[in-house]
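BUG: 3D viewer hangs when loading the predicted structure for this chain

Environment: internal workstation, default settings.
Expected: structure renders.
Actual: progress bar stalls at 90%.

Input used:
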Amino acid sequence: MLFSVKVNLNKSRPLVVGYISAIIGALLFGSVSTVAKPIVASVNPLWLSCLVYLISGATITPVVKRDRYSIKTKDYLFLIITSICGGAIAPAMFFFGLKLTTAINGSLLSNGEVIFSILLALTIFGEKLNRIGYIAIALVLGGVIIVTTNLQFDSSLLKINPGNLLIIGATIFWALDNNICRILTHRIDITKIIQLKSFIGGVILLCLTISSGISLSITSTEVPYILLLGVVGFALSLYFFLQGLRRIGTTITLLILSLSAVFGMFLAAILLHERITTFQIIAVVIMLCGIYLIYRNYMNDKSKVIRTAKS
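Structure tokens produced before the viewer hung:
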């Protein structure tokens, strides 16, 4: 009996670590919009993205496990793609979008990453959803539409805040990044993935910044914000996110990550004194309902697999 308890504890430990890691990652990532908003007006978003990812790479370097995994030739293509999508294009689009919208909208729209990640998983990995799954996706997308348009459909599409559209675009590239990382986390150490992705993305952004003639100057008051973004908002949040991804799977990790939107919304309201509108509250409720349905759908499918295996 005692042996059985020990075995169960050993089996459940990775799951516990996975859940805790995903929750910590969600809390840390939820701070990005609030921390970045005060400086995106004075620091060019391209230059800011470059600094943040280079700092992220430098932060994770001391703990990179050098000889645990060997990188195979076929994995370099995945690393390059994930670096371009998640380490260069996505952060640049996000910070450019954040400059044109509120920190609360930035946090809420980041939930699009969950849905786009699942939709890409359906395409890339051939995963399937039942009717409830598609209803859940529709709810989350409905929440995104509410935040983006404020339900003002009588206006021209061109009047929709371009910052919101840029952030939605960023979540699409981060979703592609998530699905590629899902493959790489079983082949390459997580710290190595973060290091390479951050440095490759940072160098790409640096080349674009210099070639665009953007000023590379920053003030002393901006340095703490940039360090906080690079170390906490991206390096540590990505580390904990990938830990969850490897231990509890893509779906559950992404569902927990979606809580970062709620955390970010209240953080922006408290620290930046941004007003939470009725439309934003409605959008949060709709999104959370959709995310809950995805969770229930996932757990039901998982229990069916377990019952089938036992029988």
